[in-house]
Amino acid sequence: MIGNELPFVLPGPAPARDTLAGWQHWCRIRRSFVPAPLMDLAAWRLLSPRKKMLHNLHRAATHANLPLLATPMSRAVEKLLNGRIESNALKLKPTTRAGVMVSGGGYQGKTECVCEIAAAFEERWLALHQHLNPEAQSGHRDLHAPVAYVQTPVTAKPKSTCKAILNFYGAPISPRMDLPDLIQQVASSLRDHGTKVLILDDITRLRMHRADDQDTLDLIRAFMSMHVTLVLIGVDIRGSGLLREGRHDPSTGQWQLPASERSKFRGLEPTQTERRFDLVELGRFRYDSPPQIAAWLQHLRGVQEGLRLLDATSGMLTEGTMPEYLFQRTNGVVGLLERLIEDGCREAIDSGLERLTEDLLDSVAIDLTGVPDRDPEAGEVPPVPAREARKAKRSRNTVFDDRGPAATGT
Ligand SMILES: Nc1ncnc2c1ncn2[C@@H]1O[C@H](COP(=O)(O)OP(=O)(O)OP(=O)(O)O)[C@@H](O)[C@H]1O
Ligand SMILES: [Mg+2]
Hints:
This protein is of the alpha/beta class and 410 residues long. It is built from 15 helices and 7 strands. The chain folds into 2 domains: 172 residues, no CATH class; 210 residues, Rossmann fold (3-Layer(aba) Sandwich), CATH 3.40.50.300. A 7-stranded mixed beta sheet has the order 2-3-4-1-7-6-5, sandwiched between helices. The radius of gyration is 24 Å and the shape is globular. The two termini are 28 Å apart. The site of adenosine-5'-triphosphate (ATP) has 20 residues, from helix 6 and helix 13.
C-alpha cells in the first residue's frame, strides 16, 4: 500500500494568506508538517534505495520547513500584541481601539511572528464563540473572519491599499468608487465578517513623501475608527514618516496621532479623538553581552533540533567558534540564518559530509536577489554580511572538522 510508504505529502501551492480562504487554509495547516524521523548513518545505510531516496526527500522538505522558534524578541511582540488584541476584542464601548505598530529590519521575522500570534488569537476567538453560542456559528464559519491579513501593494496609495483589503474578503470593487466609497466598503466588510484584527503588512511601502501623504494618515485614522485592532508592520517605522504627526507619550509609552482637522472621510470620525499606537521593535539577535549570547545559543539549539543530517553532533551549531561564525554570517537576523542553514544542509547532503562545518558554510552564499514578495526599495531585503571579511579574520579552528566519521560511502 503506497500510502504507508510515503513519508509525507508533497505540498500543493503555497497558501496565499492575503485572501480569506488562503488565510484560513494557512491557519489550519500551519502546524501540520511532520518532519523526517531522526536517523543516523548506520540506520540510513540499511534502507532500500527507494527508501533512501524518500527519506532524503523528506529531509530536504524538513530543512525547507524549519519551525518558527520563540525568541526573546518575538516573545516581547507577542506579549504586547496579544494583550492589545484581546482587550480590544472584548471592548464594548464605541471608542477607538489602540493600534500596534511592529517595526524592524527586513527578514527579521515580523510577518511570521505577527501572523502566528494572530492565527492563535483567531483559533481562541472561534473556539470561544463555539463554546458560548454554538448555534450561531453553524454553517457560517467562512463568513466569520476574526483576522484579516493584507499586504500593502508595492508603490501603494490609499486607494490601492483599500482595494487590497477588499480583495482579502473578495468584496466587489467598482472602478467608479472614490476613496471615501472604498473606505465605507472596507468598514462594511470588517463589520460583516466580525473582524477584530486588521493586519496591514509592509505598510512602509506607502512612502510618506508624496502629495497624498495626508490621505495616508487620514486613512490610518479611519481604519482605527472601525473597531478593530489595527496592526501595522513595516521596516523602520520611526524613519518612515508614518509617525510624523505623532507624539510620544512617555507616561504610557504609546504614540498619539492627533485627530485630523480635515476629517475628510465621512461617517468615520465619530469624535475628534486622537488615535493611540504602541510601537514595538522586533529586533535581531545581538552578540555583545552574556545574556545576548545565551539567547543566540538557545536559538541555534532550537534550529539544530530541526535538522536531519546523518552525521551531526549535538553541539554542531552551538560549540566552539560556530555560534560566532553564524552570527558574523547573518548579523543575528533569523531569516538570513534560516537561508544559510537550509542551503548548508542541502550542500551537506549533496556532498555526503552530512554535518555543518564552517568550511562547508563558507561555500554557501546567502543570495537574496530576486526573492519574491519583498520590496528592496522599502528596506525589506537586509544587507548580507560579506563572507570574505570574515574568512580573512578567522584563524583556524577547531574541534568540529575532525569529529565523528566522515560520511563516506553515502
Ligand atoms: N522566530 C523564528 N524562528 C525561525 N525562523 C524564523 C523566525 N522568524 C522568522 N523566521 C524565518 O525568517 C524568514 C523571514 O521572516 P519574515 O518573512 O517573517 O521576515 P520579515 O521581517 O517580515 O521580512 P520583510 O521585512 O522582508 O517582510 C522566514 O522565512 C521565516 O521562516
Ligand atoms: Mg514581512
